[in-house]
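pinned: reference chain
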Amino acid sequence: MKSITIIRPDDMHLHVRDNEALKCVVPFSARQMGRAVIMPNLKPPIVNVEAALSYKQKIMDVLDKNSSFTPLMTLYLTDKTTPDMVYQAADAKIVAFKLYPAGATTNSDDGVTDLFKLIPVLQAMSEVNMPLLVHGEVTDSNVDIFEREAIFIERILKPLLDKLPNLRVVFEHITTADAAQFVIQAEDRVGATITPQHLLMNRNHLLVGGINPHHYCLPILKHEKHRLALLEAVSGNNSHRFFLGTDSAPHPRSKKECSCGCAGAFSAHAAIELYAEAFDSIGALDKLEAFASRNGARFYSLPENTDTITLIKKEQIIPESYPFGQDKLIPLRANQTISWSIE
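pinned: its structure tokens
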């Protein structure tokens, strides 16, 4: 297949940061996505409706006047979140709350220390049909970093869903065969996002030939068998439960290439092209539109976008970097090629 036309996709997991960084990265997503679920882990985090609406306006102010790109706002779940805050969020059309276990990833210091103490909050979310977006890793220092997702399923996610039979959950940026199988066997109230890097790369891309800090993300890249399981999940019989969520996470080069590089991979510059390459690699381009444009909209009870984009099998060379305030932003595939382009 040399070209494919699909409904304009949505990015159901996106970081755009704030201030000058926001101005640099929002146009990348607006160029190809119809909507994006915006992550709330700023400093300070977005914990209430007022902050979310202010953040949304910042994003809107960056957009070209003819852009139809729509940011979908979320709130950061903390130990201090209350049921009343959930009801206020629902009234303001906030689409979800995001769970960051404390210490799990970038800007998660304000995250939840004991999710089961927030059962009244989660019950309120069930009442208003608001999903919980889950960064699914335990943070115990004695748990191997490659096992944190699988253990989260057993310790946290399964008991949580048993306690709250109506809670809708998005298992974000899944990385393992364990997570894929869990979602496949779950009810339709459970969905999952998958990033381009976890469909295209394994831990060799991070570690072989020297550490590549721009491939360091959390959850971390896993063994090849897990990558193959994710590809099977997005193209298999229960693929309707999986949808596009880049987790594109921009950081300045100086904070990636240092003694303690931060976690996050920037993919918004060529997100749909990277996904097309992944689906093409297994002969499943016919499944791309559902993954990118239909499944996420259905889960969030949104109409599908009304326009389309066309991808052509034509190589593009990715720049070495992009401007990022006073620093530089290194994208996935910097100085390399991607085999698909937007027409």
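why pinned: The chain has a mean pLDDT of 96. The radius of gyration is 19 Å.
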